[in-house]
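Extended Data, panel c. Modelled sequence:
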Amino acid sequence: MKMHIAGLALLLCTSLTFAQRGIGPIVNSVPNANPHEGTPDTIAARPFKLKVLVNKDFALENPSGVITSFGELSTGVGTEPDQNTYVNFLKSPGGPDKDFNYGHHFLFQGHENAGNLAYVTRINLDVKDKQHKITLLTPTDATTGLTNFNAIDGSTYNPFTGTLLFTQENGPAGGVIEITRSWPPVVKTLDGIFGRAGFEGIHVDDRGNLIIIEDTGGSSVSVSPTDPAATPKVAKQPNSFVYRFLPYHKHDLSQGGKLQALQVSIDGQPLVFNAADAFGDTHSDFAVKAAYAGNFLSDAVGHDTRHQGGRYRFVRRECRRKGRWSNSIQASGEHGVSARLSLPDFLLLPDR
C-alpha cells in the first residue's frame, strides 16, 4: 500500500452517529474522481469530512535516534506511514509513562521507509495531550541507531495471540514482525516461521489462520505482445503469491504451522511461470486465459514450518460446514475456459 503523505486524516461524519460497527452507511458519492495527475487534495462524500488527526509536527513521546516524529525522521526523510489497524482494548496496554492513562482506543501503523529505519507507531486516540499522543513501539538499537526494519507495510491484530502483526514488503529480506500489545512491547521477527519474502498484506481469519499477500514485482517487459523490444516496458511478469498459514497452535505462532501457497489451474493444468522467459510468460495464451477466467481451480502447496527444512507437498483442501456450506465455486471464463476456485477457508459461499 502506497501513501505518499506524512500525516493521517480521520474521516468524520457531521450528522451520523458513530457506533461500534462503524460510521454508518455511505449513501452519497463524490461528484467526480480526482484526476490521475499531480497530488490533488483528498475529497470525501457528503456528509463526511476529513479532519487531521496527526502529522509530522507531532513529536513522539518516546523518540529514539533519528525517529523523533510521526511521518518524518529528524533528517527530513519522509517515512510513509502505511496501513492502519484500529483496536479497542478492554484493558489499557500502558505506555512509557507508567502514571499516565493511555485509554482503550488505538491506531497502529508501520512506516514504509528504508535504510533500516522503518518503525511502528501507536496513536493513542483517547489522549488529548499532544505530548502523549503518539508512542513509538520499535526503538532504534543503542549501538547502530537502526531498527533493522524496512518497508513495513501491512498490519493486523491477532485476537488469538493477543499480538500485532506487521509485514515488511522488502523482497527476499522481508517478513513478518510480531509485537505484543502490553508495555513494554516485545518485538520479534518470525522469519523461521513464515520465511522471508516481500509481504504486503496480512489478515487473520475466524479460526486463527493467517492470509498473507506477497507483493514482489517480476521482470518488466514490453506491453506489446508481438514485439519484445517495444517500449514502454511496464508490463510485469507475475511474480507473487497468496499464502495461507495454518498454525499448529493458534494462540502461539512460534510453535510453527503449515504455510500454503495458492496454486491456479486452468482446464486442469497448473499455471506456472519461467524465470528465463518473462516476456513469454506475461503474454502467453495461458496467462491471458487465467486473467479472463476470473475464478480458478486452486490447490494449496504446503510447507511445514515446525522445523526448518520441512518437506513440501501438494494438498487438496475442501472445507464443508453444516447447512450445505462449502468453500468452492464454479464459473466459466469469458474465453470459454472452465475454471474452478477453491477459496481460502475464511471465505465461505453457500452451495447451490
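The chain is about 5% helix and 35% strand. This feature is highlighted in the accompanying rendering.
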